[in-house]
Give the backbone structure.
Amino acid sequence: MKNNIKTVVAFAGLAITPMCLAQTSVTLFGVVDNGIAYQSSSTSKGLTTGGHSAVTMTSGAWAGSRFGLKGTENLGGGTTAIFQLESGFNSQNGQAQFAGGIFTRQAFVGLANADYGSLTFGRQYTSYYLLLSPYSPTKYLTGFFGAHPGDIDSLDTTFRANNSAVYTSPSIAGFTFGASYALGGVAGAFNSGSTWSAAAQYLNGPFGLAAGVQRVNNATPGGGVWGASSTANSGGQPGVSALNNGYATSQAQQRVAVTGGYRFSPEWDVSMSYSNVQYLPGVGSSFQQKAIFNTAGLVLHWKPLTTLDLAGGYSYTRASQANGIRHAAQYQQISLTQFYSLSKRTGLYSGQAYTRANGQTLGSNGVQIINATATVGDGFNGSPSSSGSQVVVGAGILHRF
Protein backbone atom coordinates (compact mmCIF):
# COMPACT_ATOMS: atom_id res chain seq x y z
CA MET A 1 0.00 0.00 0.00
CA LYS A 2 2.86 2.35 0.91
CA ASN A 3 4.57 1.61 -2.39
CA ASN A 4 1.37 2.46 -4.27
CA ILE A 5 1.11 5.78 -2.43
CA LYS A 6 4.75 6.59 -3.23
CA THR A 7 4.13 5.81 -6.89
CA VAL A 8 1.09 8.11 -7.04
CA VAL A 9 3.01 10.92 -5.33
CA ALA A 10 5.92 10.51 -7.73
CA PHE A 11 3.68 10.75 -10.81
CA ALA A 12 1.91 13.77 -9.32
CA GLY A 13 5.27 15.43 -8.81
CA LEU A 14 6.23 14.81 -12.44
CA ALA A 15 2.95 16.34 -13.58
CA ILE A 16 3.27 19.41 -11.42
CA THR A 17 6.96 20.17 -11.99
CA PRO A 18 6.70 21.28 -15.66
CA MET A 19 3.79 23.59 -14.76
CA CYS A 20 5.87 25.20 -12.02
CA LEU A 21 8.86 25.62 -14.32
CA ALA A 22 6.64 27.24 -16.95
CA GLN A 23 4.99 29.42 -14.28
CA THR A 24 1.52 28.69 -15.58
CA SER A 25 -1.57 29.91 -13.75
CA VAL A 26 -5.26 29.34 -14.44
CA THR A 27 -7.96 31.16 -12.46
CA LEU A 28 -11.64 30.35 -12.19
CA PHE A 29 -13.66 33.53 -11.62
CA GLY A 30 -17.25 34.68 -11.67
CA VAL A 31 -20.08 36.85 -10.43
CA VAL A 32 -23.59 35.92 -9.29
CA ASP A 33 -25.90 38.95 -9.17
CA ASN A 34 -29.64 38.91 -8.48
CA GLY A 35 -32.06 41.65 -7.55
CA ILE A 36 -35.56 43.05 -7.85
CA ALA A 37 -36.53 46.11 -9.87
CA TYR A 38 -39.58 48.29 -10.33
CA GLN A 39 -40.10 49.72 -13.81
CA SER A 40 -42.78 52.25 -14.71
CA SER A 41 -44.65 52.41 -18.00
CA SER A 42 -43.21 49.28 -19.56
CA THR A 43 -43.83 47.77 -22.98
CA SER A 44 -42.01 44.57 -22.03
CA LYS A 45 -43.14 41.50 -23.92
CA GLY A 46 -45.11 39.10 -21.80
CA LEU A 47 -44.86 41.27 -18.66
CA THR A 48 -47.07 44.30 -19.06
CA THR A 49 -49.48 45.80 -21.53
CA GLY A 50 -50.87 49.24 -21.98
CA GLY A 51 -47.87 50.93 -20.37
CA HIS A 52 -48.45 49.47 -16.90
CA SER A 53 -45.64 49.21 -14.37
CA ALA A 54 -43.79 45.99 -13.65
CA VAL A 55 -41.88 44.46 -10.71
CA THR A 56 -39.42 41.82 -11.85
CA MET A 57 -36.42 39.86 -10.66
CA THR A 58 -33.26 41.01 -12.38
CA SER A 59 -29.98 39.28 -13.17
CA GLY A 60 -26.74 41.21 -13.39
CA ALA A 61 -28.11 44.68 -12.62
CA TRP A 62 -24.83 45.69 -10.97
CA ALA A 63 -22.32 43.31 -12.54
CA GLY A 64 -23.38 40.81 -15.17
CA SER A 65 -23.63 37.27 -13.81
CA ARG A 66 -20.84 35.21 -15.34
CA PHE A 67 -18.18 32.58 -14.85
CA GLY A 68 -14.96 32.01 -16.69
CA LEU A 69 -11.36 30.90 -16.87
CA LYS A 70 -8.33 33.08 -17.43
CA GLY A 71 -4.68 32.19 -17.40
CA THR A 72 -1.11 33.05 -18.21
CA GLU A 73 2.07 31.16 -19.06
CA ASN A 74 5.54 32.65 -18.77
CA LEU A 75 7.29 32.09 -22.11
CA GLY A 76 10.50 33.80 -21.05
CA GLY A 77 12.06 37.08 -22.08
CA GLY A 78 9.24 39.04 -20.46
CA THR A 79 6.59 37.51 -22.73
CA THR A 80 3.54 35.66 -21.46
CA ALA A 81 0.77 33.75 -23.20
CA ILE A 82 -2.67 34.86 -22.02
CA PHE A 83 -6.22 33.62 -22.51
CA GLN A 84 -9.72 34.26 -21.21
CA LEU A 85 -12.98 32.34 -21.59
CA GLU A 86 -16.03 34.08 -20.13
CA SER A 87 -19.63 32.91 -20.15
CA GLY A 88 -22.61 35.02 -19.15
CA PHE A 89 -25.71 33.48 -17.61
CA ASN A 90 -29.08 34.48 -16.25
CA SER A 91 -28.88 33.80 -12.52
CA GLN A 92 -32.69 33.81 -12.25
CA ASN A 93 -33.06 30.59 -14.19
CA GLY A 94 -29.55 29.36 -15.05
CA GLN A 95 -29.93 29.89 -18.78
CA ALA A 96 -27.15 31.24 -20.99
CA GLN A 97 -27.13 35.02 -21.29
CA PHE A 98 -26.77 34.91 -25.08
CA ALA A 99 -27.97 32.26 -27.50
CA GLY A 100 -25.68 30.46 -29.90
CA GLY A 101 -22.65 29.79 -27.73
CA ILE A 102 -21.06 29.21 -24.34
CA PHE A 103 -18.27 31.75 -23.92
CA THR A 104 -20.14 34.60 -25.57
CA ARG A 105 -18.93 37.34 -23.22
CA GLN A 106 -15.28 36.84 -24.17
CA ALA A 107 -13.11 34.14 -25.72
CA PHE A 108 -9.59 35.14 -26.70
CA VAL A 109 -5.93 34.08 -26.63
CA GLY A 110 -2.77 36.05 -27.26
CA LEU A 111 0.60 37.32 -26.08
CA ALA A 112 1.61 40.09 -23.69
CA ASN A 113 4.93 41.80 -23.04
CA ALA A 114 5.65 44.68 -20.67
CA ASP A 115 7.83 46.41 -23.28
CA TYR A 116 5.76 45.78 -26.42
CA GLY A 117 2.16 45.53 -25.22
CA SER A 118 -0.44 42.83 -25.83
CA LEU A 119 -2.01 41.28 -28.92
CA THR A 120 -5.06 39.04 -28.59
CA PHE A 121 -7.36 37.18 -31.00
CA GLY A 122 -10.97 36.07 -30.61
CA ARG A 123 -14.26 37.46 -29.33
CA GLN A 124 -13.51 40.48 -27.16
CA TYR A 125 -14.10 44.16 -26.44
CA THR A 126 -12.89 46.75 -28.91
CA SER A 127 -10.04 49.17 -28.16
CA TYR A 128 -12.65 51.94 -28.12
CA TYR A 129 -14.30 50.42 -25.05
CA LEU A 130 -11.16 49.16 -23.32
CA LEU A 131 -9.42 52.54 -23.16
CA LEU A 132 -12.49 54.75 -22.63
CA SER A 133 -14.20 52.57 -20.02
CA PRO A 134 -12.26 53.78 -16.91
CA TYR A 135 -14.28 57.01 -17.16
CA SER A 136 -17.48 55.48 -18.48
CA PRO A 137 -20.75 56.39 -16.71
CA THR A 138 -21.23 52.70 -15.99
CA LYS A 139 -18.17 52.41 -13.71
CA TYR A 140 -20.23 53.51 -10.68
CA LEU A 141 -23.75 53.93 -12.04
CA THR A 142 -23.75 50.52 -13.82
CA GLY A 143 -25.17 49.90 -17.27
CA PHE A 144 -28.53 48.88 -15.84
CA PHE A 145 -29.19 52.22 -14.10
CA GLY A 146 -26.67 54.62 -15.58
CA ALA A 147 -25.53 53.83 -19.12
CA HIS A 148 -26.50 56.67 -21.41
CA PRO A 149 -30.04 55.86 -22.66
CA GLY A 150 -29.95 52.72 -24.77
CA ASP A 151 -26.15 52.68 -24.38
CA ILE A 152 -26.22 54.70 -27.59
CA ASP A 153 -22.47 55.38 -27.41
CA SER A 154 -21.36 51.84 -26.46
CA LEU A 155 -19.60 52.93 -23.27
CA ASP A 156 -21.02 49.92 -21.42
CA THR A 157 -20.21 46.27 -22.14
CA THR A 158 -22.93 45.97 -24.79
CA PHE A 159 -20.59 45.48 -27.75
CA ARG A 160 -18.12 42.67 -28.24
CA ALA A 161 -16.59 41.81 -31.59
CA ASN A 162 -16.14 38.34 -33.05
CA ASN A 163 -13.09 37.39 -35.14
CA SER A 164 -11.12 40.34 -33.77
CA ALA A 165 -7.48 41.20 -33.21
CA VAL A 166 -6.84 43.73 -30.44
CA TYR A 167 -3.50 45.44 -29.76
CA THR A 168 -2.84 47.52 -26.63
CA SER A 169 0.47 49.30 -26.18
CA PRO A 170 2.40 49.60 -22.92
CA SER A 171 2.15 52.90 -21.09
CA ILE A 172 4.66 55.41 -22.50
CA ALA A 173 4.98 58.65 -20.53
CA GLY A 174 1.41 58.16 -19.36
CA PHE A 175 0.03 57.41 -22.85
CA THR A 176 -1.53 54.09 -23.88
CA PHE A 177 -2.69 53.36 -27.42
CA GLY A 178 -4.95 50.65 -28.79
CA ALA A 179 -6.35 49.43 -32.08
CA SER A 180 -8.68 46.58 -33.02
CA TYR A 181 -10.04 45.04 -36.20
CA ALA A 182 -12.72 42.37 -36.52
CA LEU A 183 -12.84 40.50 -39.83
CA GLY A 184 -16.22 40.44 -41.54
CA GLY A 185 -15.51 37.34 -43.61
CA VAL A 186 -17.54 38.53 -46.62
CA ALA A 187 -16.17 37.16 -49.87
CA GLY A 188 -14.96 39.85 -52.24
CA ALA A 189 -15.61 42.70 -49.77
CA PHE A 190 -12.93 42.93 -47.08
CA ASN A 191 -14.57 45.69 -45.00
CA SER A 192 -18.16 44.42 -45.20
CA GLY A 193 -19.30 43.13 -41.84
CA SER A 194 -16.10 44.32 -40.17
CA THR A 195 -15.63 46.35 -37.00
CA TRP A 196 -12.61 48.53 -36.34
CA SER A 197 -11.63 50.94 -33.60
CA ALA A 198 -8.70 53.01 -32.35
CA ALA A 199 -8.23 54.80 -29.03
CA ALA A 200 -5.71 56.56 -26.82
CA GLN A 201 -5.58 57.11 -23.07
CA TYR A 202 -3.50 59.47 -20.92
CA LEU A 203 -3.00 59.11 -17.17
CA ASN A 204 -1.18 61.61 -14.96
CA GLY A 205 -1.72 61.19 -11.24
CA PRO A 206 -5.35 61.95 -10.37
CA PHE A 207 -6.15 63.09 -13.92
CA GLY A 208 -7.09 60.88 -16.87
CA LEU A 209 -8.34 61.41 -20.40
CA ALA A 210 -9.25 59.04 -23.25
CA ALA A 211 -10.52 59.39 -26.80
CA GLY A 212 -11.55 56.83 -29.39
CA VAL A 213 -13.40 56.01 -32.58
CA GLN A 214 -15.32 52.85 -33.50
CA ARG A 215 -17.00 51.88 -36.76
CA VAL A 216 -19.31 48.92 -37.34
CA ASN A 217 -19.96 47.96 -40.98
CA ASN A 218 -22.97 45.96 -42.10
CA ALA A 219 -22.23 42.80 -44.06
CA THR A 220 -25.06 43.46 -46.50
CA PRO A 221 -23.98 45.78 -49.33
CA GLY A 222 -25.88 49.06 -49.22
CA GLY A 223 -27.36 48.40 -45.77
CA GLY A 224 -29.15 45.54 -44.07
CA VAL A 225 -30.63 44.48 -40.75
CA TRP A 226 -28.30 45.71 -38.04
CA GLY A 227 -27.54 43.03 -35.50
CA ALA A 228 -27.84 40.06 -37.85
CA SER A 229 -24.78 40.57 -40.01
CA SER A 230 -22.14 42.45 -38.07
CA THR A 231 -19.20 41.06 -36.13
CA ALA A 232 -19.88 43.44 -33.24
CA ASN A 233 -23.51 42.48 -32.79
CA SER A 234 -23.37 38.71 -33.03
CA GLY A 235 -24.27 36.44 -30.14
CA GLY A 236 -27.69 37.93 -29.47
CA GLN A 237 -26.50 41.47 -28.80
CA PRO A 238 -28.21 43.70 -31.36
CA GLY A 239 -27.78 46.91 -29.36
CA VAL A 240 -31.11 48.21 -30.65
CA SER A 241 -33.14 50.42 -28.30
CA ALA A 242 -35.96 52.94 -28.45
CA LEU A 243 -33.39 55.54 -29.49
CA ASN A 244 -31.99 53.88 -32.62
CA ASN A 245 -34.67 51.34 -33.52
CA GLY A 246 -35.49 53.25 -36.70
CA TYR A 247 -31.90 53.01 -37.94
CA ALA A 248 -31.47 49.25 -37.70
CA THR A 249 -30.99 49.04 -41.49
CA SER A 250 -27.94 51.31 -41.52
CA GLN A 251 -25.02 50.49 -43.77
CA ALA A 252 -22.65 51.48 -40.97
CA GLN A 253 -22.61 53.04 -37.53
CA GLN A 254 -19.77 55.18 -36.21
CA ARG A 255 -18.92 56.39 -32.71
CA VAL A 256 -16.45 59.04 -31.62
CA ALA A 257 -16.13 59.64 -27.89
CA VAL A 258 -14.03 61.38 -25.25
CA THR A 259 -14.04 60.44 -21.57
CA GLY A 260 -12.06 61.81 -18.66
CA GLY A 261 -11.91 62.11 -14.93
CA TYR A 262 -10.25 63.68 -11.92
CA ARG A 263 -9.81 62.36 -8.37
CA PHE A 264 -9.99 65.19 -5.87
CA SER A 265 -9.29 62.96 -2.87
CA PRO A 266 -9.62 59.32 -1.83
CA GLU A 267 -13.31 60.05 -1.19
CA TRP A 268 -14.29 62.19 -4.18
CA ASP A 269 -13.88 61.88 -7.95
CA VAL A 270 -15.68 63.09 -11.04
CA SER A 271 -15.87 61.75 -14.59
CA MET A 272 -17.20 63.25 -17.80
CA SER A 273 -17.99 61.95 -21.27
CA TYR A 274 -19.03 63.19 -24.69
CA SER A 275 -19.93 61.13 -27.74
CA ASN A 276 -21.03 61.59 -31.33
CA VAL A 277 -22.85 58.59 -32.81
CA GLN A 278 -23.77 58.38 -36.50
CA TYR A 279 -26.00 55.94 -38.36
CA LEU A 280 -25.07 55.97 -42.05
CA PRO A 281 -27.63 54.91 -44.69
CA GLY A 282 -26.94 52.81 -47.77
CA VAL A 283 -28.94 52.09 -50.90
CA GLY A 284 -30.83 49.35 -49.05
CA SER A 285 -31.56 51.33 -45.89
CA SER A 286 -35.10 52.34 -44.90
CA PHE A 287 -33.98 55.86 -43.94
CA GLN A 288 -32.25 58.24 -46.35
CA GLN A 289 -30.21 60.74 -44.34
CA LYS A 290 -27.42 60.30 -41.83
CA ALA A 291 -28.73 60.33 -38.25
CA ILE A 292 -26.57 61.79 -35.49
CA PHE A 293 -26.87 61.48 -31.71
CA ASN A 294 -24.74 63.70 -29.45
CA THR A 295 -24.49 62.82 -25.76
CA ALA A 296 -22.82 64.53 -22.80
CA GLY A 297 -22.66 63.07 -19.32
CA LEU A 298 -21.30 63.76 -15.84
CA VAL A 299 -20.84 61.40 -12.86
CA LEU A 300 -19.90 62.34 -9.29
CA HIS A 301 -18.62 59.54 -7.01
CA TRP A 302 -18.32 59.74 -3.23
CA LYS A 303 -16.86 57.11 -0.91
CA PRO A 304 -17.68 58.28 2.63
CA LEU A 305 -16.70 54.87 4.11
CA THR A 306 -14.37 52.13 3.00
CA THR A 307 -17.45 49.92 2.64
CA LEU A 308 -19.79 52.41 0.97
CA ASP A 309 -19.88 53.89 -2.56
CA LEU A 310 -22.39 56.53 -3.61
CA ALA A 311 -22.73 57.99 -7.11
CA GLY A 312 -24.98 60.30 -9.06
CA GLY A 313 -25.04 61.13 -12.74
CA TYR A 314 -26.77 63.17 -15.41
CA SER A 315 -26.73 62.79 -19.21
CA TYR A 316 -28.26 64.66 -22.11
CA THR A 317 -28.71 63.15 -25.58
CA ARG A 318 -29.92 65.03 -28.64
CA ALA A 319 -30.62 63.60 -32.09
CA SER A 320 -30.18 65.45 -35.37
CA GLN A 321 -32.97 66.84 -37.54
CA ALA A 322 -32.88 64.32 -40.37
CA ASN A 323 -35.24 62.08 -42.35
CA GLY A 324 -38.14 64.52 -42.15
CA ILE A 325 -37.92 65.01 -38.39
CA ARG A 326 -38.41 68.64 -37.41
CA HIS A 327 -38.48 68.23 -33.65
CA ALA A 328 -35.48 65.99 -33.00
CA ALA A 329 -35.57 63.63 -30.05
CA GLN A 330 -33.96 64.63 -26.76
CA TYR A 331 -33.28 62.38 -23.78
CA GLN A 332 -32.37 63.48 -20.26
CA GLN A 333 -31.44 60.97 -17.58
CA ILE A 334 -30.69 61.20 -13.86
CA SER A 335 -29.20 58.17 -12.08
CA LEU A 336 -28.29 57.39 -8.46
CA THR A 337 -26.57 54.27 -7.10
CA GLN A 338 -25.50 52.96 -3.69
CA PHE A 339 -23.21 49.99 -2.99
CA TYR A 340 -22.36 48.55 0.43
CA SER A 341 -19.60 45.94 0.77
CA LEU A 342 -20.39 43.19 3.24
CA SER A 343 -16.96 41.70 2.47
CA LYS A 344 -14.34 41.79 -0.27
CA ARG A 345 -16.54 39.48 -2.36
CA THR A 346 -20.14 40.16 -1.35
CA GLY A 347 -22.12 43.38 -1.53
CA LEU A 348 -25.58 44.93 -1.45
CA TYR A 349 -26.64 47.55 -3.98
CA SER A 350 -29.54 49.77 -4.95
CA GLY A 351 -30.20 52.20 -7.76
CA GLN A 352 -32.74 54.73 -8.97
CA ALA A 353 -33.03 56.35 -12.38
CA TYR A 354 -35.35 58.60 -14.35
CA THR A 355 -35.31 59.26 -18.10
CA ARG A 356 -37.37 61.87 -19.93
CA ALA A 357 -37.73 61.84 -23.72
CA ASN A 358 -39.03 64.69 -25.87
CA GLY A 359 -39.35 65.26 -29.59
CA GLN A 360 -39.63 62.76 -32.40
CA THR A 361 -37.67 59.90 -33.95
CA LEU A 362 -38.14 57.14 -36.53
CA GLY A 363 -40.23 54.08 -35.79
CA SER A 364 -39.01 50.51 -36.24
CA ASN A 365 -39.80 50.52 -39.97
CA GLY A 366 -37.28 53.31 -40.50
CA VAL A 367 -39.85 55.51 -42.26
CA GLN A 368 -42.67 56.51 -39.90
CA ILE A 369 -42.02 59.48 -37.60
CA ILE A 370 -43.14 58.79 -34.03
CA ASN A 371 -42.89 60.43 -30.62
CA ALA A 372 -39.71 59.53 -28.76
CA THR A 373 -40.12 57.13 -25.86
CA ALA A 374 -37.89 56.82 -22.80
CA THR A 375 -35.59 54.00 -21.78
CA VAL A 376 -33.32 53.94 -18.71
CA GLY A 377 -29.71 52.85 -19.22
CA ASP A 378 -29.31 49.65 -21.21
CA GLY A 379 -31.11 47.27 -18.86
CA PHE A 380 -34.45 48.08 -20.50
CA ASN A 381 -33.60 48.09 -24.20
CA GLY A 382 -36.12 45.31 -24.68
CA SER A 383 -38.79 46.96 -22.53
CA PRO A 384 -38.76 50.73 -23.05
CA SER A 385 -41.44 53.03 -21.74
CA SER A 386 -44.70 53.40 -23.64
CA SER A 387 -44.48 57.14 -22.97
CA GLY A 388 -41.94 59.92 -22.76
CA SER A 389 -40.79 59.06 -19.24
CA GLN A 390 -39.55 56.05 -17.32
CA VAL A 391 -38.67 55.47 -13.66
CA VAL A 392 -36.61 52.52 -12.44
CA VAL A 393 -35.87 51.55 -8.83
CA GLY A 394 -34.00 48.39 -7.92
CA ALA A 395 -31.90 46.59 -5.30
CA GLY A 396 -29.94 43.38 -5.15
CA ILE A 397 -27.03 41.32 -3.87
CA LEU A 398 -23.94 40.05 -5.67
CA HIS A 399 -21.11 37.70 -4.86
CA ARG A 400 -17.77 37.47 -6.68
CA PHE A 401 -15.69 34.31 -6.70
